[in-house]
């Protein structure tokens, strides 16, 4: 097993990629903190992991709230003793709203979850990692973090920020035994569509221009396998970079 004895925190783990990552990590021997805004969903994931003999706990946490982030990491440490792996996965879409139609409210909400949440969990685990001189962070960015029109302006900017943050943390803490990488998934079959409540027609039309180039949608389990690689010692020489997983969509 690749994560035997490791303690992993996964945000947004009630659904989609976070759920698949939590399940795979538990199957690989990790003790998993299944965290989500929706705690019932997280508890269902924990029950599934336990039914297969794995070890997990559910913690309610809104990554956009500093007090929730504090409590998430503190509870993980009090329950499991430490944190070895942080997977920043929680994220929302932005209704494909283009720059000219953006509201401060939408911009702030998308950044609070997709970007500030990543910063806050990272800020909170780094003292633990630096003291132990080991730790791994994997951020779920997006093809929209590397390209210009996979979503609206706020989502695109929020995920580009995650890519920059990933590289900064990866380099700055490299000599302290800490690695920080990101995954840029293409289209993956999850429940994220439920966060697209009122798509902006102009922005969506502009975002969909390249969809004909997409070879196929991915499954959450395919992203979980990339996360396992990045979280395990198999990727010991991989740091401060972004792994694209999109069936070749962005290679054109
Ligand atoms: N699905 C895709 O096509 C795709 C592509 C590229 C990147 N991503 C990214 O992958 C990540 C996971 O998304 P998914 O597709 O699995 O979506 P999903 O909606 O299936 O799962 C996301 C989970 O995050 C939780 N969540 C939302 N806001 C939260 C908050 N403030 N605090 C804590 N949890 C919160 C939700 O309750 C949900 O359980 C996101 O960061 C998303 O931007 C998705």
UniProtKB/TrEMBL annotation:
Molecular functions (GO terms): oxidoreductase activity
Key words, A-Z: Oxidoreductase
Oxidoreductase is among the record's keywords: yes
GO BP terms: bile acid metabolic process
One Pfam family in the UniProt entry: adh_short_C2
Domain of life of the source: Bacteria
Family the entry assigns: Belongs to the short-chain dehydrogenases/reductases (SDR) family.
Name under which the protein is recorded: 3-ketoacyl-ACP reductase
Lineage: Bacteria, Bacillati, Bacillota, Bacilli, Bacillales
